[in-house]
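Model it.
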Amino acid sequence: MKEHVSKSGGRPPPRITASYLENAALHYLERYSSSRANLRRVLMRKVDRSLAHWGGEREEAGQAVDAVIAKLAGLGYLDDAAYAEIKVRGLRRKGASTRLISATLAAKGVETETTVAALAEQEPDAELTAAFTLARRRRLGPFRPKDKRAEFRAKDLSTLGRAGFSWEIARAVIEAEEPPSV
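Modeled.
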């Protein structure tokens, strides 16, 4: 009897069952935090690979994926609000702007209202602090040697602008005489 092999030449993808989807979702969540929409994308890629090999109905498999996601959300393994708060804190620590954070969460499928709520919990000067953090990491403005600051002023401003910071915040960071004690 000849064994089925996938197009890539490896072993064939497993058939999609509810237990397989649940195990795959739990395995993914053990390694990564995720939003509901992102986990759905991950599971649907597995479904598509399996259906391409074994055949079947995508709608039926999609309903099974939705059922697994609803079950995991009910158990507390998936919480978009908690995911958004964790991502906002982590990205702020790295020096990310509000625009970059919003775009990152939108790409992961987090709803706009959830993103706005997570950003609202930040300190009032979080954007300025993040800009200084990015400037420190990239050695911009006050973190650059004094004799090179004027020469690289425009470049530093554009770097902060591309990172999503407003003109006012970028200018305040680049024109700061001394770096703040962070």
